[in-house]
Amino acid sequence: MDFQSHALKCSDDSSTSSDLVLYSFWRSSCSWRVRFALNLKGLSYEYRAVNLGTREQLSPDADFESLNPLKYVPVLVDGPVVVSDSYAILLYLEEKYPQKALLPTDLRLKSRHLQVASIVSSSIQPLIMLELLKTIGENFGPEEPLPWAQSNLEKGFNALEKLVKDFSGQYALGDEVHMADVFLAPQISSAIENFGIDMYKFPTLARIYESYKTIPEFQASSPERQPDALH
User: Fold this and answer.
1) What is the pLDDT of residues 16-60, one digit of tens each?
2) I need a surface site. Which of 41, 55, 108, 182 has the fewest CB within 10 A?
3) Who's near 12: CB < 8 A, 6+ residues apart?
């Protein structure tokens, strides 16, 4: 796939929601956050699969670096605007497409939503990335990546449980789906499915995850529903 030519093509178009292109990998929880948010905001988009399993993003022929110098997904293209990193993408979407706001107006709640998002994106996800786990396995033995990932997930979930337990409703910080939920839902699902985390230690997170599973926009954004999913 020629990623660069597609980016140039998009830059010639007007920046309406129909121009949105998401570069995603079906199993990427970071991409999942963005898919979930796009669905919640009712924004249509073109799905462009990037096969991280075959390291397509590293191919010099594909030139994915022109979209994201770090060569990670997700990347969102919106007309002339190219945004990488899920946190940056969600903040961009919140500014550009304010319908179905992901951040509440109350500053106290807004700050807590941002804290949850930051913990997931900065203190959990980087420590369980596929490339890091592969490196740990290669250097310290194949039995080491799983306990490493589980330890970091549980550390992060302990903090998140404390952060939301006194504010939660049906969802993380109330009865409406907001930014914290967009980050938590994919991370909890990945922790259970990929790393065998038992959520009984985190009763609030476990309870709200059951609520997430009933949300149509979350279901539609799930990995197995993506066009590049392997079944």
Assistant:
1) 456 899 999 898 999 999 999 999 999 999 998 886 655 555 556
2) 108
3) none
With beta carbons less than 8 A apart as the criterion, state whether 118 and 179 touch. Answer: no
Sequence-ordered list of residues with C-beta below 8 angstroms from that of 67, at least 6 positions apart, any chain: 3, 4, 7, 23, 75, 77, 82, 84
Report pTM. 0.88
**How sure is the predictor about 3, in pLDDT bands with cuts at 50, 70 and 90?**
low
Whole-number pLDDT of residue 64:
63
